[in-house]
Write a structure and sequence with these properties.
Elements (H helix, E strand, L loop, with lengths): L5 H14 L7 H8 L7 H16 L23
Helix pairs in contact: 1-2
Length: 80
């Protein structure tokens, strides 16, 4: 059964995608949920609400990006 108010689900997933900029711990869950924006079901909306509850409980987590900071990106790879 497709969830009523697909627009609400799409809007919620869009906002969660935006949050993943500073919360990489949410990336996998939001990625999976974003695959169902075309025809979300009740289970998908419940899972999205579960992500919101997790987000509410972990407000202090995340990456702080200050506007006046010198941003340098460092990367590494351990494969040969």
């Amino acid at each position: 059964m497709v969830v009523e108010g697909c627009t609400r689900y799409r809007r919620l997933i869009g906002r969660l995608i935006y949050v993943t900029i500073t919360r990489p711990d949410l990336l996998y869950a939001v990625h999976i949920l974003s695959q169902f924006v075309q025809a979300p079901r009740k289970e998908h909306m419940e899972a999205a609400h579960r992500v919101l509850r997790y987000l509410k409980g972990t407000v202090a987590f995340g990456i702080l990006l200050k506007a006046n900071a010198d941003l340098r990106l460092h990367g590494f790879c351990d494969s040969v």
